[in-house]
Amino acid sequence: MLIQIDRILMIFAMLLSIPVIVTGIHYNLQMFQQNGYRNSEFIHWLEKNAARQRFLWPYLGFFVLLILFKAPPARLVCLIALMIWMGASIAAFLLYWRSETKKKLVMTARVKRLCVTFVIVTALICILSRDKCLICLLAILSFLPELLMLANIINAPIEAGIRRYYINDARRIMRENPGIRTIGITGSYGKTSMKYYLHTLLKDSYDVLITPGNFNTTLGVVRTIREHMRPSNQIFLCEMGARHVHDIKEICDLFPPKEGVITSIGPQHLETFHTQENIINTKFELADALPDGARIYLNADNEFEVNKAREYGDRLKVIFYSYKNNMGYHASEVKLSPMGTEFTMTAPSGETARFSMRLIGEHNVINVCGAIAVAHEQGIPLEALRVPVRRIEPVAHRLQLINRGDVTIIDDAYNSNPVGSKAAVETLHMFNGIRILVTPGMVELGGKEADYNYKFGTYAAVNCDHILLVGRRKHTDPIRKGALDAGFDEKDIRSFDDLNGAMEYAYSITGEGAKYILLENDLPDAY
Prior knowledge:
By secondary structure, this protein is α/β, with parallel strands linked by helices. β13, α20 and β14 form a beta-alpha-beta unit. The strands form two sheets. The protein has a nine-stranded mixed β-sheet with strand order 2-3-1-4-5-6-7-8-9, with helices on both faces. Strands 10-11-15-12-13-14 form a six-stranded mixed β-sheet, with helices on both faces. It has 21 helices and 15 strands. The protein is globular. 52% of the residues lie in helices and 16% in strands. The two termini are 51 Å apart. It has three domains: 156 residues, no CATH class; 215 residues, UDP-N-acetylmuramoyl-L-alanine:D-glutamate ligase, CATH 3.40.1190; 121 residues, Protein-Tyrosine Phosphatase, Chain A (Alpha-Beta Complex), CATH 3.90.190.20.
C-alpha cells in the first residue's frame, strides 16, 4: 500500500512539473527576446532583477531533502520530499503565471527553433538520467534560464547561417535597384519620429520606402528590403538604431547611405555603451559612411553634434537645423497651444514660410524642422511643404494627445530619456488646469541613472501639480527626492505598484480646470 502511495505521489509530482516547465520557458523566452537573444544581456537581466533567485527558491528545500534521501528513515524522507516537490511546483507555477508582462512573446521562427532545441536538450537529459526521473525534472525546473541559453548557443551556427542568407539576399536586391537613394536616420532619440515626419513630407513628390515601426536593427533593415522594396522606390528612409558600438557601422557597411540625418544625441543605453563618447562616435558612424560631398543633417541645438560637426566640414556638406540657435534651417516665432504648434521656418537661402501642425512639444518642433530641411534639400519648395506639415500625424506614445472629455492624456510613454523627459514636463506646464505626471522613471542610464532621475524630479517639481510614481523604488525614489528637494509638497507625491492604480488615482483628483495627465515612459518587462 505504501509503495502504491509512493508511485501515485511520484506520478502526481511529475505531472505538476509540466505546467511549471511550460509557463517557465514561456516567461524566460519573453525576457530572452526582449534582451535581443543575447546571452550576456539575459544574464545581466537575471542578475539585475534577481529573477534567478525569485524562481529558484521553491526548489531549495527539495535540494536539501534530496541530500538526505539515503539517510534513515529513507521511506519517510522520500514521502516528505515528494510533498515538498509538489508544493514547490505549485509555488513556482504561480510565480510564473502571475508575472504580468506588457510585451507579449512574439512566436518568430527563431523562437520556434529555440523551442525545438530546448525540447531536444531536455529530452536528452531525461534519457541520460534513466531511472532518476525526479532528479531529471529537478534539473530542468531549476535551470530553465541556463538551458535556454544553452539552446541558444547550440543554435548559434544555424542562426548565423540564416542571418548570412537574409543579408546577402537583401544586398542583392539593393544592387538590382541602384537608383534608390538611401537616407540613413539615427540618433539617441527622435529618429522614429523623424522618419515618419519625413515620409509625410516626401511621399507626394517621391516613391518612398521606410523601415516600418521600430525595425531599426540590421535584421530589421534586411527584412524591410526583402519584404517591401520595389523597383519603383526612389528614396529609402532607413532608421538605424544602436545599443552597442559599431551597430550603425554594420548597417552602413551592408547598405551604404547616400545622405544622413542625426536627430539628437544624449545619454541613452549607457549600460551597453558605457560612456557618452561611445554614443557620440557610434551615431557619427553614419557620417563616416557617407561618400565625399554628401549631405549630413545635424541638430544645431545639440552641443554634441555641433562640436562633432567640425570633423566633417571638409569632407561632407553639413546642413544644420535648429529651434533655439538660429543655425541653418531654423524655426522662429513659435506659438504652442493645446491644439498644436505654429512657427516660421527660414532656410539658409533666406526663403521663409509659416507652418502649423497638430504636434506639441519642443522636440517635435526640432524634428519637424529637420524633416523640412531634408525635404527642401530634395528640391521641394518651403511653400509646397505647408500642407504636408499640417498632415503630419502624432507618432504613437511620443507626446500624443488623447482627449477623453475633461481629461487629456499626453502619452509620452515610449522610451523616455533625460532630454525628452524634461521637455515633456515643460510641455505639460503650458496647459492651464490640473497637471499630473505619471512615470516609472528612466532606465538604461548606467551609473548615472539615479542622478538623471533625481534631476527629472527637480524638473517635475517646477512643472507639475501632482507626481504619481509607478513601480520599483529603485527608479522612482530619486525622482521623489529630487522633487522634495526642489520644494514640492510631499502630499502631492504618491507611489503605486502598477499603472492601473496610478491612473485610477489620477482620475479621482479634483480641482479647478481640466485635467492633463502626462504618461512619461513605460518600462518594458525586462525592467
